[in-house]
């Protein structure tokens, strides 16, 4: 009987372990929310310094697939993003893979001092198939910033 119990436990651990490891590969909703809250406080302390931190890989605002991105709340130009090619481009030009206006959704959702959410489908890093993703977005002064996580 003990032998069966040990075998059953070994099988259960073998099945559960890959799920636990892969879940840690990506950020969670709670982690994304905590990061956007931290970003809002950092923006309130000084916009230029905050944007420098958000754009710096070692600035404390990147964790696995979680990162802060920002755009000018009036003009729409990206001011912070890990993909440096996007900085300076208009957020409203972003599209989902199916052509849906992702950037326009983000631009329209910004609200001063209030975290809003935008849901869409986007490929995971290294992937090509769109999967559900949600972004927490907040406007602080002249910046609208977001952190998205994959559901």
Protein model, in words:
The protein has 151 residues and is α+β, with helices and mostly antiparallel strands. It has a single domain, classed as Beta-Lactamase. It contains 4 helices and 7 strands. The protein has helices at residues 2-24, 29-45, 47-55, 102-109, and strands at residues 62-63, 66-67, 69-72, 78-80, 116-123, 130-140, 143-150. The strands form 2 sheets. A 5-stranded antiparallel sheet has the order 4-3-7-6-5, sandwiched between helices. Helix 2 (29-45) packs across helix 3. The radius of gyration is 19 Å and the shape is globular. The N and C termini lie far apart (41 Å). The relative contact order is 0.18. The model is unreliable at 1-21 (pLDDT under 50). Keywords: Cell membrane, Membrane, Signal, Transmembrane, Transmembrane helix. Residues 1-23 form the signal peptide.
